[in-house]
């Protein structure tokens, strides 16, 4: 992965022997997106702490994160340091191996205020990384970048902080990758409901089955050389399916749908009762 040109901002940040790359788990990205959705109305972006470890090869492995309340203007930044330290102490009680490795922010690239925040995290840990997640889809997708910072000096005088992009490795299992692709490339007014999600999944499954049929036909007709590995995979997949008659499958499917609809109905009643109770409690306090 090619790195971008350095970004310069006036700030006395210090770093030596910085990490060579970053590895980020999918849960960190989902935490960042969730914190952005829940941000205060007046906030343009959110920031937070990255937790993980430094691997022997110089790679920073980011495994967890938490948001840190802050406010910023054109020339100053205020961070809730007590909240940051309390959250870190709580995380240490659960997993002492996850230490501070840097910080994240939402938005595209590095801004002037980022240097002040990076200076704070440079006092918390040596050589912190800065992870940016473009939740505003500036270029049509959720761009994710990792940066390190070093000093530009003239003699003993600090002139600027140099932010340099480093290679970023996103580690995801198949289920996480499917969710990330939705966040990465799609801007929607609302999340799909269960029925819409099932419909989308069935359409993708139909496309995959159609591709398998085409591959098998090509092998049988001699248009494609057979691959024993693929053949065993298809055989195992077919053998794993339960042998059900169409009537039995329809009954099983309809029973499951009825159970889901019952849960949705009960959840709706519960929300209605809670809402009514809150209104009655508010009216009683007013009276």
Automatic annotation (TrEMBL):
Gene3D superfamilies: Cytidine Deaminase, domain 2 (3.40.140.10). CDD domains: MPN_eIF3f. One of its GO terms (biological process) is formation of cytoplasmic translation initiation complex. GO terms for molecular function: metallopeptidase activity; translation initiation factor activity; translation initiation factor binding. The keyword Endoplasmic reticulum does not apply. SMART domains: JAB_MPN. Pfam families: JAB, MitMem_reg. Residues 1-20 are annotated as: Disordered. It is found in: Cytoplasm. Keywords: Cytoplasm, Initiation factor, Protein biosynthesis. Residues 22-153 form the MPN domain. One of its GO terms (cellular component) is eukaryotic 43S preinitiation complex. Belongs to the eIF-3 subunit F family. Component of the eukaryotic translation initiation factor 3 (eIF-3) complex. Component of the eukaryotic translation initiation factor 3 (eIF-3) complex, which is involved in protein synthesis of a specialized repertoire of mRNAs and, together with other initiation factors, stimulates binding of mRNA and methionyl-tRNAi to the 40S ribosome. The eIF-3 complex specifically targets and initiates translation of a subset of mRNAs involved in cell proliferation. This is Eukaryotic translation initiation factor 3 subunit F. It comes from Miscanthus lutarioriparius.
């Amino acid at each position: 992965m090619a790195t971008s040109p350095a970004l310069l901002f006036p700030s006395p940040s210090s770093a030596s022997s910085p990490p060579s790359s970053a590895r980020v788990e999918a849960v960190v990205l989902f935490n960042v997106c969730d914190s952005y959705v829940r941000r205060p109305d007046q906030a343009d972006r959110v920031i937070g702490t990255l937790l993980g470890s430094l691997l022997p090869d110089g790679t920073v492995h980011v495994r967890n994160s938490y948001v840190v309340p802050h406010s910023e203007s054109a020339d100053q930044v205020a961070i809730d340091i007590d909240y940051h330290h309390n959250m870190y102490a709580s995380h240490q009680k659960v997993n002492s191996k996850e230490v501070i490795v840097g910080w994240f922010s939402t938005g595209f690239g590095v801004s002037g205020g980022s240097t002040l925040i990076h200076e704070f995290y440079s006092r918390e840990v040596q050589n912190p990384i800065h992870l940016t997640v473009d939740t505003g889809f500036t270029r049509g997708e959720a761009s994710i970048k990792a940066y390190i910072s070093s000093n530009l000096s003239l003699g003993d005088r600090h002139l600027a902080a140099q932010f340099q992009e480093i290679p970023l490795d996103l580690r995801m299992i198949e289920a996480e990758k499917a969710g990330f692709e939705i966040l990465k490339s799609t801007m929607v007014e609302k999340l799909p409901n269960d029925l819409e999600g099932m419909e989308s999944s069935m359409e993708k499954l139909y496309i995959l089955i159609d591709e398998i049929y085409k591959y098998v036909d090509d092998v049988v007709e001699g248009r494609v050389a057979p691959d024993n590995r693929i053949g065993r995979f298809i055989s195992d997949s077919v053998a794993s399916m339960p042998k059900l008659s169409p009537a039995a499958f329809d009954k099983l499917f309809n029973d499951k749908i009825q159970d889901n609809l019952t849960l949705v109905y009960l959840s709706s009643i519960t929300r209605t009762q809670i809402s009514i109770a809150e209104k009655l409690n508010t009216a009683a306090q007013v009276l």
